[in-house]
Amino acid sequence: xxxxxxxxxxxxxxxxxxxxxxxxxxxxxxxxxxxxxxxxxxxxxxxxxxxxxxxxxxxxxxxxxxxxxxxxxxxxxxxxxxxxxxxxxxxxxxxxxxxxxxxxxxxxxxxxxxxxxxxxxxxxxxxxxxxxxxxxxxxxxxxxxxxxxxxxxxxxxxxxxxxxxxxxxxxxxxxxxxxxxxxxxxxxxxxxxxxxxxxxxxxxxxxxxxxxxxxxxxxxxxxxxxxxxxxxxxxxxxxxxxxxxxxxxxxxxxxxxxxxxxxxxxxxxxxxxxxxxxxxxxxxxxxxxxxxxxxxxxxxxxxxxxxxxxxxxxxxxxxxxxxxxxxxxxxxxxxxxxxxxxxxxxxxxxxxxxxxxxxxxxxxxxxxxxxxxxxxxxxxxxxxxxxxxxxxxxxxxxxxxxxxxxxxxxxxxxxxxxxxxxxxxxxxxxxxxxxxxxxxxxxxxxxxxxxxxxxxxxxxxxxxxxxxxxxxxxxxxxxxxxxxxxxxxxxxxxxxxxxxxxxx
Length: 504
Description:
four-stranded antiparallel beta sheet; alpha/beta
C-alpha cells in the first residue's frame, strides 16, 4: 500500500507541476499579457525551482527516509498551492497602475513578486521524485529500474497535467479554482498517507490545512478578475483574457490580456473613431479612384474596420479573420458585429490567406496581440501570399505601432513590404503611437495618391483624408527584411519598450 501511494503521489505531483505552469500563465495574463517574454520567465523560474527541489529532495530523503516525511512535504506543497492565487492578488493589482503609468520599477516588482510566490510549492513538488526513489529502492541491482519507473510516472503525469489543465480544468473551473483543485488533490492524498502512518490525532494539523483551503474556496466569490471602470463583461478564452468596457464618452471598447490597448471601438451614433482604424478607409485610394469592391480583415477583433467599410462603402463582401472564436462572439453580442455582408471566420490569418482566401481589393492586417504582431504575419513569405490574393487594383494596409521617437518596427515592416510590392507608403497617425503602412500591387506615385485622396467626396473619408494628406510619405527603409527563417519581432519590440520605459 505504501509503495502504491508513493507512486501515486509521484504521478500526481508531476501532473500538478505542469498544470501549475500552465495556470501561472493564466494567472498573469490579465495583468502582463502572454508574450514570449512572460512565458520565458515562467518556464525559466519553474525550472530553477524544480532544480532546487531535485537537489534538496535527494538530500532530505537520505537524512529522513520515511514515507510520512514525503507525505508531510506533499501536504505543505498542496497548501501553498491553494493559497497562492490569493496571496498573488495584491502583487497583481500593483500591475494596473504600473502599466498605466509605464512604471517599470513597480511593474517589475509586481511581476517578480508574483513569480516568487511559486518558489515554495514548485520547489517542494520538485523534492518528490528523488525522495520517492529513495523510498522505493530496495536493492542497488534494481535502482535503475525503480528510478526509471518513477520518472516515467512523473512525466506521464506532467503530460496529462498540460492537456487536462488547458482543455478541461480552465474551462470547467477557471484559474483560481484550478489552483484549488491541485491543492485539494495533493492535500487529500498526503493526509491519507499521514493518517495511515501516524493516525488521525497527529494528522489533525494537516487536516486544518485542508480545511483552510476549503474555507478559502468557499468564501471566494470568483467575481471580477481585474476591476476596470466601466466594465461590461470579461471572458477567459483559450487565447485571451477579454474585457468589454464602456467609457465616459459613450464608446464601447474591446481590450485583451493586460488591457493597455484597444482592439475595437464601437459607438452606435458615430462612424469615425479618431484612431488608427479611420486610416484604413484611405487604403483603396492608393491604387484607384473607385471605392473598394471587397475587403479582407486579418485581425477582425470586434469588427470596427468591417463596420466602417460597410457604412461608408456599402454592403461589399467582407471576410474577417479572427484567431479567437470568443472574440467573434463578443463582437456579435456587444459590438453590433452583425452585418450580413461580413463573414466572420475563426482561423489563423496566414493559414486563411494560404488555403482559402478569395481575391480582394483591400487586405487589412491589424493582428496585434499586444504588444506584438505575430511574427509569421510580418515576413516576406506572408506578404507574397497576400499579394497573390489581391485583385489588379489591390492594396495591403498594415497597422504598425511605434513610440514618438522609435520607428524601428515601422521601418522593418515597410522594408519587408518593399521587398514584395512596388509601392509602399506611410501614414502616421496623430496619436504618435501608430502608423499605417499601405502597399500597392501596381506601381504608383505619391502625387497620384494625393490627387485621388483630394478628390474624395464621401464626408467621413474626406475628413480622414484631409487630416492625413500633409503627412503621407513614401517608405524608404530597406532593412531589416523579415523572413520566416529570421523575424526577430519580439526582440525588436522588447527593445523598443525598454528604451521607452527608460526614457531613451
